[in-house]
Amino acid sequence: MPLPVPVLPEGVDPAWLPPAAFRAVGGRRTLIRGSGPLVETVHGEVAEACRRFGGRVVRDAEAEGGAHDLVLDLGADAPELLGEEGFTSAREGGTTTVTASGGRGLLYGLFHVVRLGEAAFTGEWARERHHPALALRMLDHWDNVAVHPVMGQVERGYAGGSLFWEDGRARGDLERVRAYARLLAACGINAVAVNNVNVHETEARLLTDRIGEVAAIADVLRPYGVRTHLSVSFAAPVVLGGLPTADPLDEAVRGWWAEATRAVYAAIPDFGGYVVKADSEGQPGPFAYGRSHADGANLLADALEPYGGTVHWRAFVYDHCQDWRDRRTDRARAAYDHFVPLDGAFAANAVLQVKHGPIDFQVREPVSPLIGAMPGTPLAVELQATQEYTGQQRHVCWLGPMWSEVLRFRHQPESSVGELARGGLIAVSNAGDDPFWTGHPLAQANLYTFGRLAWRPDAEPGEVLDEWIRLTFGPGPEAGLHAVLDGSWRTYEKYTAPLGVGFMVQPGHHYGPSVDGYEYSPWGTYHFADRDGIGVDRSVATGTGYAGQYAKPWAELYESPDTCPDELLLFFHHVSYGHTLHSGKTVIQHIYDTHFEGVAEVEEAREVWASLAGLVDPERHARVAERYEEQLRGAREWRDQINSYFLRKSGVPDELGRRIY
Ligand code: GCU
């Protein structure tokens, strides 16, 4: 039986799967071959498209002799080694053929044809092979089941409540979750962790007595090829099992995890595995028992191993109770210092999940040196789609170019970050129960781009953006949309913290400027501005030594302010305001200029958006227009606080004599 396409609740935005995106497929004659649950999903999709656009779909058994425009073929004898997710596509003699050897491959093949639109049925081409570069393309939802008193339902969520949880339990109606799974499949995402990495009391129980709720969610994600993962508490044997210890080497603890995991798989046979934040920002971990992170990760890896599951062990481990007077401790160093000595000690199904930068998803950070320094450990790279430090989905900030820079970065010539991320690419989700999914309608582009870059880390981000625009908006507003999104990350960088310095945000919620908000705090995020200069000396010669964690070319390049790239200068060095950048400007003049430019660019983008009024659906247009007002207010606030702060500290006037307070 074909699986019916999910019905969007009234008023919910179709995002990148509006009915019109299926016009080309829906108007044609399609033959589907093969069997299995995902073939029914594919059939449901094509049947719905045909219902709308007048085409026809038949299954192998009923196929009459007639010609077909599209053949979707799940052949056991697929020609090449395509795996579960790959597919081929070819067009010959007026028929487009997609072949796959696994159900997910067939579904991805269908969405490939949808993306191509009319081009899928034009001309001829020889067989092309499509295959995801990374096997795991996952979203981490920082969703709480029970509303947390400080963090709310979704930690760092800017898109309303959770898609999965409401009022302390799994939603009864999961139709919207089905629609979400469909959107994820259409951009290649194949896994979701359904709860926050900070595992509070209620959420800890999802692992045991409340696994049925997780299983219900897994049931609706599965037909779109999305697997379910769970964040668990390292202290579970104590808090749930009543054991006196969670020591990873204790036999009773090992037995407890083995039994808990057996029960998880009984409820969810294709369960993906556990995500763990241990010994990080107050979460429990192996340190309490004098054990290493490898001991901790391997405990869970062993429990998951009989079922083919994976533990994603996060490397976000640092001292969050630092004394700001202590200039030797450097938070940027922490992940490398903790984990590099453990290289080779992790089980094959224990993946170390590393944030892309060494601090915490700032608008500009260098690529984490840890990623290039653990050849004997499966690594996953973690990005943040939720815009915690990049405008919180009130500002437009399309992160495609930043992520692409990260994924293409080469610690050493042999391999890029995209190639080193053998354990997958993961993003902290930016979606919630908001009618536009992501609060800011244009933030949908981040979710889509993440999926496509996880499929192909070396894809051109601009092409992915155009793909998203075409699918979501159809013909008409493409140029304007491209213009407001393409440079938005650099614009955001210009009016916020300069030259890689980071963290000049309001403490706690992290929205809006506060230059010294974290300067005398325990979090290890300082800029050290004084009357003479600014920046953190992370050189080996005179600073914290962080620059020395990189492989050769980068260690040398970052070591000296003469060779360090401008955009990271204050991340690596403390320099005077009069220091001349490679751009020829002084640091202080760069700060003034970029802050004025950033605001001007937001004003311009707002105008471009206004000009799209007749070309974009009115609800979307209104929501974005409203957010532009807030973005502009916010950008001016950033400009004026940053410029005034540095004028007052340095006493150096703006060369152009513009208004600074
Ligand atoms: C950031 C964020 C936290 C989150 C943490 C993490 O610090 O502000 O809310 O818990 O990252 O990645 O674990």
From TrEMBL:
Source species, domain of life: Bacteria
Hydrolase is among the record's keywords: yes
Domain Glycosyl hydrolase family 67 C-terminal as annotated: residue spans: 438-658
Keywords noted in UniProt: Hydrolase
Glycosyl hydrolase family 67 catalytic domain boundaries: 128-437
InterPro entries: A-glucoronidase_C_sf (IPR037054), GH (IPR017853), Glyco_hydro_67_aGlcAse (IPR011395), Glyco_hydro_67_C (IPR011099), Glyco_hydro_67_cat (IPR011100), Hex-like_dom2 (IPR029018)
UniProt name for this protein: Alpha-glucuronidase
